[in-house]
């Protein structure tokens, strides 16, 4: 009991929880201003998520890439970098999974699927590694390079799909024989597109934790992330750690791409614009305080909100974009913790006074 | 009220920060035309008090009177209006701006919409003549000497019409000759009708220039005395609270074989400017070599070259006969070179790591801390427990972040880590900067203990007293060269000062 | 390529550059004061949206040629409001500036589309506007190539070029500029001389919102004619690159913005060349982004950046 109290007394748990509540309140106010009924909207949102086994399965499907990209952004953050390029890394991962799956069709499944997944992680990692390399060698801000690489990834993926994998007359690749789908759960979830990627994402979170806090290599990366100067003085190779950290970050994002192509769609579309997984990943990482457990929880919340937002527009006629305002506000309150503390101040004050009495 | 109301009167000023009372009911008066010294150790509360006078902090209790009238100083603008000017210890100068731009910033003379640089430069020139402050109005700050930068700081206050000047540790970065010059400037300012508060922990300067001294310790005023009626020993005792000798006890050095040898080392910085200019010196086992010099003459670059953080263009650096020039920091560290860095926050510690994690910052990858890629947390923790006990590092636990430790304990932690590596060569850069007297004594004793165990110790310090007291031999660095080597017993501040300013060259006298 | 095409290419270059110039100038104000502004993208989005809505209602009210200017004013106002979110979080509450800028991008993406749907009965984009018309400069527009290329442009392009010079003057010749730069280089030096650091930073960030807002407006009022989810697709980030490439100097940023504008414009013209037909269009689309990286690799480090960039000012810290 004492232990429990200690956990919940720490600010690090209270701030995000209050921030989430405040974010929902902002959303409610925005809906009131727009003439909508926030209670109806929020209940429609949750009804959509928990309403049927199919919807629940689809919500889980929605959460999966967010877990990966959230982990990707968080991992880079822990190593002192801001990876805005998870989006491009997802695309590269998708493309790698498509190329391997489609071009090596006929290979037995137990080989083909792992190969496609590994290729996705590897290529996503290399794509992010480019930004890491440019930062390490030339000191170029990774924020700019990862954004540019997003666009390059978009056009490169489209080029590859269009010229090597195209299904004639369609705006997409031929079907990919490699599949991550959990078909044995079809009856349980009413054919929702649940897939092994979710399990893989949970493993990735575990890997994140163990690697960063229990291994020698992770120790180095955290040191580099917190104080690159001291790390260099202590004899660590800062540049190499930057590249490695970006590689791992990109690999997480690449796996998200594998999950989408091999588990959900089973083909790859030609995208007109960025699919946006990476930007959602930033939100998830910040929401999860860049801790793997936090990221998983944040991805669950975020996935529920985005999947449920469609319910909001059916059920209460609220534009689903509203949910972006809610999420933006939540991150705003987490980033500007001062505001949350200011809101909490009266409560803290009271509690302290009680102690004195 | 007579005309002789004090220009500044502080009454019962109290300022609390979370966990400490920085100023506890401090009262102080500054008379017109007086130089009033404020003496105290690092952390005694001097700077907090002056920041209150300058409007950067608000006192929790107490009041301030200027010329007999109570005032509330809630921002620097108000202080400037009241004629208070502050010469900060860490110069508050904008590097890419010119001298004139720095002086007029915030009070720019205008012609239409534009800044009237012509009239600004003219005013700067006038002030510089009136007070005998030599400056070049159009030079950029990063191109001028430290001494001139300080004159710019002084002129900033005069340009704003300050009558009350606060000097915060103004001599910390100056050579003895520059200090003499500063003293003359301060005398001239007083003669022109200004009043001065001088914050310092250097007794010599106080005796030389001040009229009265107020001593504070742990936020409280201990005493205010006329300088003429006191002496350095009395002041020191009041400052520290016990009898102190500033002499360091040590036995004669048992000098052994050569450990570090630098031969004709050259290195350029990013802009192609030569920062090490044919550096030659040697440190032997069992001795402490002190490098004296004014900040910015190649000290940092010298350390970086030895520790592998900087590439050298030519020359040789050997440790125990093995060439180490341009090896990686890790390789050099593995050759038993330890380094207590100058900037402990930036280079010495990862502040957001725990104390335990910081203790293995250079050895985490070795057995027994690392086993096939995984860290052995229990071994690391045990190691940290041992070290904090052995070196008396005060921390609630090894799980606390290094950030939460006091400066002295952070430095102790670094020293513990570096000495624990059992080095052949120990490099200590500014190891006592910002520490209180107790911690300074501890650090200096550790350096001497290392020397007594036959280690070679290289000490770099801007504090001449420390160089004189701790070193067995002194090398003076000027513009990336060693311009003289002397034994501390054969020299004095004046001679060292001339060498530090580059005006006296005297190589090899105490050389090997 | 004949001279007429060359003139057209130059003209298109300026059309694409204009929005980037405005936004990069905005970035300069914010970053010179010491506040990283990665939210330029979102601020442009706010501006583009406000211009589309304001311009539409003004057009509807029969304001004719003045309607787009109403749009510009709305864009400035909404840009400033948006930038205030960034200012409050990062200056007053000392939030991480990069995160706070990201929040702007999120809020802009969500709220603009939300409002579009609210105002226009669930539509995904705003109604098509007439927008600005090109205004030839009498006499000068007759000069070959340059006349077609420069002196027959949208009024916003002229405005952008004038602003480059004005802002250069403001930054380097006036007390305001000196103070703004001082705050970005060494805030505590400025503070001790009585310059209000937070106030200067608020002004810097708000000016960035104002200018990025105009930048966004430029796109709806001269290029797309409507606002939709993809109206601003990365221009804000390219403006940041232009600012960095231009070393935080208005003239440099102008040059860089024109360069990026050119690499976007060339897309439409490169197909005129016979040799280019063999290159897949995706690779042509990539050109500006690849060029940006190449340019950054071959130029500038961080050395030109304001020294206190990204650090919240805390007077208690010494």
Notes on the protein architecture:
Chain B: Residues 8-243, 260-504 form the ABC transporter domain. The complex is a heterotrimer of chains A (357), B (512) and C (318). Chain A has 357 residues and is mainly α. Chain A has a domain at 67-280. Chain A contains 15 helices and no strands. In chain B, the strands form 6 sheets. A 6-stranded mixed sheet of chain B has the order 6-9-10-3-11-12, sandwiched between helices. The radius of gyration of chain B is 25 Å and the shape is globular. The relative contact order of chain B is 0.10. The mean pLDDT of chain C is 89. Classes of the chains: A mainly alpha (357), B alpha/beta (512), C mainly alpha (318). Chains in contact: A-B, A-C, B-C. Chains A and C meet through helix 7, helix 12, helix 14 and helix 15 of A and helix 3, helix 4, helix 10 and helix 12 of C.
- Termini distance of chain B? 68 Å
What composes the largest sheet of chain B?
6 strands, mixed
Biggest interface between chains: A-C, 47 and 46 residues
Q: Would you identify the regions of chain B where 5 or more consecutive residues have pLDDT less than 50?
A: 507-512
| Structural class based on helices, strands and sheet pairing of chain B | alpha/beta
Write down the Rg of chain C.
20 Å
Largest sheet of chain C: 2 strands, antiparallel
Share in helix of chain B: 25-40%
Quaternary class = heterotrimer
Mean pLDDT over the full residue set of chain B: 90
List the secondary-structure elements of chain C in sequence, H or E.
Answer: HHHHEHEHHHHHHH
Shape verdict of chain C: globular
Terminal CA distance of chain C reads 61 Å
Counting DSSP E segments of at least 2 residues, the number of strands of chain C comes to 2
Report the principal-axis shape of chain B. Answer: globular
Rg estimate of chain B, integer Å? 25 Å
Low-confidence segments of chain C, given as residue ranges, are none
Q: How are the strands ordered across the major sheet of chain C?
A: 1-2
């Amino acid at each position: 009991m004492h232990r429990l109290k200690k956990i919940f007394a720490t600010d690090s748990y209270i701030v995000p929880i209050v921030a989430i509540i405040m974010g929902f309140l902002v959303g409610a106010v925005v809906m009131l201003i727009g003439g909508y009924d926030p209670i109806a909207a929020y209940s429609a949102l949750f009804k959509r998520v928990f309403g049927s086994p199919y919807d629940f399965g689809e919500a889980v499907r929605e959460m999966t890439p967010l877990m990966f990209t959230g982990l990707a952004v968080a991992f880079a953050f822990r190593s002192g970098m801001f990876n805005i390029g998870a989006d491009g890394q997802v695309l590269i991962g998708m493309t790698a999974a498509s190329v391997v799956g489609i071009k090596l069709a006929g290979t037995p499944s137990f080989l083909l699927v792992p190969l496609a997944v590994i290729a996705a992680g590897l290529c996503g990692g290399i794509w992010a590694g480019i930004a890491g390399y440019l930062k390490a060698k030339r000191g170029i801000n990774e924020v700019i390079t990862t954004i540019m690489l997003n666009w390059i990834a978009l056009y490169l993926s489209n080029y590859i799909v269009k010229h090597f994998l195209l299904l004639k007359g369609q705006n997409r690749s031929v079907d990919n024989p490699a599949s991550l789908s959990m078909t044995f759960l079809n009856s349980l979830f009413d054919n929702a597109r649940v897939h092994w990627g979710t399990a893989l994402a949970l493993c990735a979170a575990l890997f994140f934790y163990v690697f960063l806090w229990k291994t020698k290599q992770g120790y180095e990366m955290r040191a580099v992330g917190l104080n690159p100067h001291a790390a260099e003085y202590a004899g660590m190779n800062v540049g190499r750690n930057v590249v490695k950290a970006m590689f791992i970050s990109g690999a997480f994002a690449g796996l998200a791409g594998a999950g989408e192509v091999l588990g959900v769609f089973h083909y790859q579309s030609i995208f007109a614009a960025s699919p946006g997984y990476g930007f959602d990943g930033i939100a998830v990482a910040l929401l999860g305080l860049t801790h793997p457990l936090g990221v998983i929880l944040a991805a669950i919340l975020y996935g529920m909100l985005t999947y449920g937002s469609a319910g909001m527009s059916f059920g209460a006629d609220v534009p689903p974009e509203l949910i972006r305002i809610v999420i933006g506000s939540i991150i705003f309150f987490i980033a500007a913790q001062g505001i949350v503390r200011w809101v909490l101040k009266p409560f803290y004050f009271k509690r302290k006074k009680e102690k004195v009495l | 009220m007579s005309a002789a109301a004090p220009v500044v009167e502080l009454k019962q000023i109290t300022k609390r920060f979370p966990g400490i009372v920085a100023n506890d009911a401090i009262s102080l008066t500054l008379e017109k035309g007086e130089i009033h010294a404020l003496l105290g150790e690092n952390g005694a509360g001097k700077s907090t008090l002056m920041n209150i006078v300058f409007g950067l902090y608000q006192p929790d209790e107490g009041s301030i009177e200027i010329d007999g009238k109570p005032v509330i100083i809630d921002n620097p603008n108000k202080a400037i209006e009241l004629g208070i000017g502050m010469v900060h210890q860490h110069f508050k100068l904008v590097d890419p701006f010119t001298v004139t731009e720095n002086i007029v910033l915030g009070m720019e003379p205008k012609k239409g919409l534009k800044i009237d640089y012509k009239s600004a430069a003219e005013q700067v020139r006038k002030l510089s003549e009136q007070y005998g402050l030599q400056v070049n109005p159009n030079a950029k700050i990063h191109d001028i000497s430290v001494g001139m930068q300080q004159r710019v700081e002084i002129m900033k206050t005069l340009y704003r019409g300050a009558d009350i000047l606060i000097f915060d540790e103004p001599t910390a970065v100056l050579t003895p000759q520059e200090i003499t010059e500063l003293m003359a400037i301060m005398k001239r300012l007083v003669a022109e009708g200004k009043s001065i508060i001088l914050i310092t922990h250097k007794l010599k300067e106080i005796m030389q220039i001040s009229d009265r001294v107020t001593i504070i310790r742990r936020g409280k005023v201990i005493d205010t005395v006329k300088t003429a009626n006191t002496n350095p020993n009395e002041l020191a005792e009041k400052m520290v609270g016990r009898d102190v000798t500033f002499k360091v006890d040590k036995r004669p050095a048992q000098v052994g074989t050569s450990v570090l040898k630098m031969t004709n080392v050259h290195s350029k910085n990013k802009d192609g400017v030569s920062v090490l200019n044919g550096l030659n010196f040697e440190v032997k086992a069992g001795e402490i070599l002190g490098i004296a010099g004014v900040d910015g003459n190649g000290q940092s670059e010298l350390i970086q070259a030895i520790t592998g953080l900087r590439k050298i263009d030519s020359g040789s650096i050997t440790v125990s006969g093995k060439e180490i020039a341009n090896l990686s920091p890790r390789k050099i560290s593995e050759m038993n070179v330890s380094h207590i860095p100058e900037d402990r926050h930036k280079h010495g510690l990862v502040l957001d790591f725990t104390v335990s994690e910081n203790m293995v910052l250079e050895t985490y990858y070795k057995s027994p801390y690392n086993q096939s890629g995984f860290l052995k947390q229990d071994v690391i923790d045990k190691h940290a427990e041992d070290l904090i006990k052995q070196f008396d590092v005060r921390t609630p636990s090894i799980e606390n972040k290094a950030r939460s430790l006091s400066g002295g304990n952070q430095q102790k932690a670094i020293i513990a880590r570096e000495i624990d590596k059992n080095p052949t060569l120990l490099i200590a850069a500014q190891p006592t900067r910002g520490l209180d007297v107790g911690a300074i004594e501890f650090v200096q004793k550790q350096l001497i203990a290392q020397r007594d165990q036959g280690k070679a110790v290289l000490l770099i310090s801007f504090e001449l007293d420390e160089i004189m007291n701790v070193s067995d031999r002194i090398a003076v660095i000027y513009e990336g060269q060693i311009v003289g080597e002397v034994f501390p017993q054969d020299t004095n501040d004046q001679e060292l000062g001339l060498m530090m300013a580059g005006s006296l060259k005297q190589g090899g006298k105490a050389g090997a | 390529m004949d001279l007429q095409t060359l003139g057209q290419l130059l003209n298109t270059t300026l059309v694409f550059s204009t929005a980037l110039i405005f936004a990069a100038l905005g970035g300069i104000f914010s970053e010179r004061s010491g506040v990283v502004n990665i939210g330029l993208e979102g601020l442009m989005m706010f501006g583009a949206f406000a211009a589309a809505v304001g311009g539409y209602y003004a057009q509807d009210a029969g304001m004719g040629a003045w309607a787009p200017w109403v749009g510009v004013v709305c864009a400035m106002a909404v840009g400033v409001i948006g930038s205030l979110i960034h200012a409050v979080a990062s200056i007053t509450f000392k939030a991480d500036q990069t995160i706070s800028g990201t929040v702007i991008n999120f809020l802009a993406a969500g709220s603009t589309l939300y409002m579009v749907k609210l105002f226009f009965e669930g539509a995904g984009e705003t109604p098509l506007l007439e927008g600005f018309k090109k205004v030839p400069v009498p006499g000068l527009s007759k000069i070959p190539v340059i006349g077609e290329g420069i002196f027959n442009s949208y009024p916003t392009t002229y405005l952008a070029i004038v602003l480059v010079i004005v802002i250069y003057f403001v930054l380097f010749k006036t007390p305001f500029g000196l103070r703004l730069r001082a705050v970005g280089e060494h805030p505590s030096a400025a503070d001790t001389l009585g310059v209000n650091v937070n106030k200067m930073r608020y002004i810097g960030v708000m000016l960035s919102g104002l200018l990025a807002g105009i930048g966004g407006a430029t796109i709806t009022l001269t290029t797309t004619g409507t606002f939709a989810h993809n109206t601003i697709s990365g221009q804000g980030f390219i403006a940041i690159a232009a600012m960095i490439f231009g070393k935080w100097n208005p003239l440099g940023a102008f040059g860089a913005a024109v360069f990026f504008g050119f690499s976007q414009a060339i897309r439409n013209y490169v197909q005129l060349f016979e040799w280019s037909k063999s290159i897949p269009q995706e690779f042509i689309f990539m050109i500006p982004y690849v060029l940006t990286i190449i340019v950054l690799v071959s130029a500038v480090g961080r050395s030109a950046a304001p020294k206190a960039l990204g650090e919240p000012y805390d007077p208690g810290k010494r």
